[in-house]
Amino acid sequence: MVLKRAAALAALFLFGFVAPVAAQDVTLTSRDGAIELSGMLLGFDGEFYRLETEFGELTVDSSGVLCEGPACPNLQDYVAELSVSGSTTMGAVLMPALVEGFAQRAGYDAVREPVDDTRFRYLLTNTETGKLAARFHFRVTTTDEGFADLLANEADIVMALREIRPGERQRAREAGMGDMTGLHRSRVLALDAVVPVVAPGNPVRSISPLDLARVFSGQVTNWQDLGGVDAPISLHLPQAATGLSQAVADQVMKPVRLEITDNVVRHPLGTALSAAVADDPFAIGIASYAEVGNAVPLVLTGACGFALEAGRRTIKTEDYPLTAPMFLYLPARRLPQIAREFLAFTRSPTAQVVIRRAGFVDQSPEEVPIDMQGNRFANAISTAGPEVPLEELQRMVRTLDGMSRLTTSFRFEAGSIRLDAQSRSNVQQLARAMEVGTYDARRILFVGFSDGDGPSAANRNIALRRADAVRKAITEAAQSEDTKRVTLDVDAFGEALPMACDDSAWGRQANRRVEVWVR
User: Fold this and answer.
1) Phi/psi class of residue 318: alpha, beta or left (left: φ > 0; alpha: ψ in -120 to 50)?
2) Is residue 220 part of a domain?
3) Strands of 352-433, DSSP E
4) Cα separation, 448 vs 132, whole angstroms
5) How confident is the model at residue 482 (pLDDT cuts 50, 70, 90)?
6) pLDDT at 415
7) Quick check: 487 and 443 in contact, CB under 8 A?
């Protein structure tokens, strides 16, 4: 009897599996011999088979069937396979450090084996039994290549320095991988930032985002126009297909409707970019915060006098506007148990230490007392106008007095009430912290802020609605009984506490946010 889709698989999920090295035909037979199903074996995760059959792609619990065919896995000595592809920035240092940290924590010996210029794998062996437990395969190229491998069913996880593009999202959905922007389909592993850099001998130490875009569009070609010497500017960027280069296009160029000039030296590795800039006194580049090396980062400035410098805390809070989250994208697939354990480890406190030691910005929330907010409050006072009366500033100080700001912030997609990708990950992170009792018997205040474009009363109302939207998202993500142990409130102060100048799109985006304060 042929197994039918509806009756056959009590274990039919929106899950997938690690693809075997070469998919081949197999036959699955129920243990009583009454049901038989043939098809191409697409994967096995140690518990479930995934087959391509005449009825479509089906998932079968291995405990209820016998497998016949040369592709059938060895159930006694099963070795899990996990394929990870994408960003070199993530794959060169960060992911290997996490794999090795996980192995040490979980009782495995991890041995790294090179395959070719872009590929390597980790062999994880159980220290007690001496048996090989898993092979983690890595291909480190670009974010574009990572998504291409995923869509070709050649990768289980994508390492990305940008959000998934609409076209990639649509193709993934059509391939049965689910909505890659949905819950649990992506997570922020760590934080990075897009940082303009120059040589140590270059006298220029700051630049506005507009001038940065004009430089890389070819409109500004001489350092003299930026307060430097009379010399031509040489331009350096990452390889075009990398997530970091695409973040430059999205965050630096797109807000002012400019395109990157062709007169740019491209580098496949961020470390090579920074080294080239450091050796050339007339060069400017845009690098990853974690790969600045011997180059000197430039401070972002605005006409209103604000200055924003990339640092661990300003990147974590997203106060530095050119933040580049480091994403892991996972299709709607069931991964082997050891792979699921590894992903759980990446969110642990131990993993956050590993991330920091690797030179990246971790996700652990930090509490910044109000008495360390002096510069921000000074900026608020200096930029206050008729639309922000003294009474509102006083109300803000009274409200936040005695509280601490979490480094977890929330922002929304442009022109939308939908949280951006990093903020959606922050929702899950804060909800988990509440579930384990981190904020029991404490008060959490979600505080909305806006840009200064438009009437101040309307801006405050918008900021208040956004703060309430964040509170609702946290409440839904956490168990209801967990939220009862914590007081969750909302407030808003509109444009009263700007982070950047409102004269640019990036500045207005930086000012539109929801902060989290705790007592």
Assistant:
1) left
2) yes
3) 367-369, 404-410
4) 51
5) low
6) 63
7) yes
What does the pLDDT look like over 274-319, one tens digit per residue?
A: 999 999 999 999 999 989 999 999 999 877 777 888 988 889 888 8
Is 75 part of a structural domain of the chain? Answer: no
Q: What is the pLDDT of residues 120-164, one digit of tens each?
A: 999 999 999 999 999 999 999 999 999 999 999 899 999 998 889
Sheet with 25-30, strands from edge to edge, namely 56-61, 48-53, 36-44, 25-30, 65-68
- Listed in sequence order, the residues at least 6 apart from 332 whose beta carbon sits closer than 8 Å to its beta carbon are 14, 15, 16, 176, 177, 178, 185
CATH label of the domain that carries residue 285: 3.40.190.10
376 and 439 inside one domain: yes
pTM here?
0.77
User: Cα separation of 455 and 466, whole Å?
Assistant: 17
- Taking only the tens place, the pLDDT of each residue in 52-110 is 888 888 888 888 888 898 888 877 778 999 999 999 989 999 999 999 999 999 999 99
Going by C-alpha positions, the residue among 417, 299, 433, 297 that lies closest to residue 363 is: 433
Query: Amino acid identity of 371?
Result: D
Provide the domain limits for residue 404: 365-518
208 and 307, same domain (yes or no): yes
Domain at 51, CATH number: 2.30.30.700
Number of domains in the chain: 4
Task: List, in order, residues 6 or more apart from 39 with CB less than 8 Å away.
Answer: 25, 26, 51, 52, 53, 54, 58
Per the listing, tokens 């590993």 go with: 354
CA separation for the pair 4, 201 (Å, rounded): 71
DSSP secondary-structure letter at 478? S
456 and 476 share one domain: yes
The answer to whether the beta carbons of residues 90 and 326 sit under 8 Å apart is: yes
32 and 88 co-located in one domain: no
Structure tokens belonging to residue 369: 């007392």
